Amino acid sequence: MLCDFTPACRALLFWRRREAMRGERAVKVSARCVVVMGGGAFPPTLRGGLHRVVCCDARFEKGPCDDDDDLGLGLRPDAKPCGSRRDPAPCVYGGKPRSWKMTSVAKPEIGANGTGKPVANGKIANGHGGGAPVVRTPSTEAPPSVGGQGGVNNNGSGGKVTLVIHKYETPPGAEKQHVVQTEDLDRYVAAMKESGGFKEQLATLKTGQLKPWTVAQKAENKHKNRYADLLPYDDTRVILHPLKNDPSSDYINANYISGYHKPKAYICTQGPVEKTVSDFWRLIWQEEVCKFIMAANLVEEGKRKVERYWPETCSKYGDIMVTLVSEEAFVDYTIRTFKVHKSGSPSKRVVKQFHYTAWPDHGVPAHPLSLVEMVEMAKAHAPSSKAPLLLHCRSLFNPSSSFTVLASAAQGTIVLLEAALAMARAEKRVDVMGLLYKLRQQRVNLVETLEQYEFVHEALLERLFGEPTRQPQDKLLPYFNRIKQDKPGTKNTDLELQYEKLKQLSPPLPPEKCKFALTNENRLKNRSMEILPDDDGRPILGAGASSVYINAVYTNGYASRRTYIVTQYPLIITVEDFWQLVYDTGSQTIVLLNDVDAKDETCPIFWPQTGSMHHRHLRIDHVSTDVVTGGVLQRKFKLRNTAKSPKSRLLKQFHLQGWHKGDVTPPSVDLPGSFPGQGGALAAEVPAPKPHHRRLLVSVRQVFGKCSP
User: Fold this and answer.
1) 511-707 — its CATH code?
2) Which residues have CB under 8 Å from 625's CB, separation 6+?
3) Which of 180, 106, 168, 93 is nearest to 138 (CA)?
4) pTM metric for this prediction
5) CA 460 to CA 449: how far, in whole Å?
6) Can you tell me the distance from the alpha carbon of 377 to that of 375, in angstroms, rounded to the nearest whole number?
7) What is the pLDDT of residues 253-292, one digit of tens each?
8) CATH top-level class for 222-465?
């Protein structure tokens, strides 16, 4: 039997009933790529040992294919068949086309440890429940496309890989599993995203209330809940030590969550409301929490999402005094350190808050790098502590939910990620779906949306296979020199591999993300139609400009957002817009990264070399031109809006010399103790932007005859 097992074109077989009606040669799966043992009483389309396989569209939805099929099996041909049944198409992962042979599997054997789990090729198969697994053996060593409910594992036979598919429907209360070897995780994630497998997995898990939460619904506790549909289950709720003469003070909207083989590894709670701020600090003190993660902003979309529960300097919450010791801001998160002391206690404790500020109002972060980095920093703090890691976030409105309209996005994502990471490192395999099944038994609706579920897998890949690039300042230059060296056994350096990864993380924007740049009015303002600004990240010019559009984008700095503006070298028709951009954004520093040819009309000199120039209401006066270290020119200008104020703003322009038109990089000039090249000299001269201070504007260089970023 031959079949193309690419995500875009696969054999798709549906079993319409939970149990096999005849024999033990078939298994109920909700799979994108399924193989069934040949022979037996199969419908006409399958007789003859399954030598004919029909390719079905990967987006095909569940449904009966053949009402005359008394066994409940059906095949539907794709509108675009995958070609010859005898010549399968190449694997989506590259390499030779694969032919797949059927391997008969006997009834499940009892494992040596007496578990009673199915055994495949001498190994205990993944999953629970009855039914013999179906084994597909590829004729080459290429990795299989992933489909169905099962895991990819190496059977130790000549390096070949087997994919074991198990019956997913399990007895009531049984554990649900979907195990994948970590070495296959990257290919598995790519295949599942393309085929819609993650959506199918998530749909099988129940949402909404799964257990009683009677304590949370008591009249005396209702005001302590932010939402009526996001309550703690009775069996896993955190019980506070009650205050004197107040028996209901033992309640807080929080649950213990077990991690991978670690009971009560986490506490998931709601963001404090005004009446529960003191309860929140009681929780931290009682559970001896030394670090906690906040994944919310106090105000989002103009609405209060979380009550501010920490002080500007120091405050007392009930009988607990909290003092802010330090605050360190990064672009996507802030780390605060508190000293916490309870009245009557001889001890004082240090507690760190890791506040992730980049979780969007809707959806998930664009990439997991900064979240992964922050969680690693949180784990590195007080690693010997046995106390739970506390997490809270704000709740989101989720109109697609079938039961509840609330979802705690970030905390569930982080907890599931950490549990999956622990399993992967301990067992070299991971069961994200099974772990999520367990988490939802402990707190309602953890990881509710497809975006969140896929984000966990992407973050898991980053945690398992991503190389740390954060380096101390004194080790940065040696690190840079090391990653420039050829990597043994490959044709690439680590630096080149990092660059390739960056390109994967930042694919080209689709046209719908750049609508303003593509309007007829704005097309002529772009130097290249391949380099356009994202509608969500571009500056918008204010009153007085010829239009609101300019080819420019904001970029983040180390400790703050939108610290820099990157723009193309001005065209003749956009010089006025460039100066409007400088004025509107409050920029005081301009960096120019290319030489200017006075004969090149496409790249005009846009500043006054002497005297002054005017662009509508803006006046630019030349002050001075000086040569600084490493062939960098520094020019000073005064910028004034003649229609508004007599006051002028002092601007500095740093102009890198020697980067000629068509050169990919600037000329190399080694500077002692710095990075090579004139870029190092430029970086040494340009002042770093101050926090909350607008802004440093970079006019980009010419590459291959074009001015482009």
Assistant:
1) 3.90.190.10
2) 609, 633, 634, 635, 636
3) 93
4) 0.66
5) 17
6) 5
7) 999 999 998 999 999 999 999 999 999 999 999 999 999 9
8) alpha beta
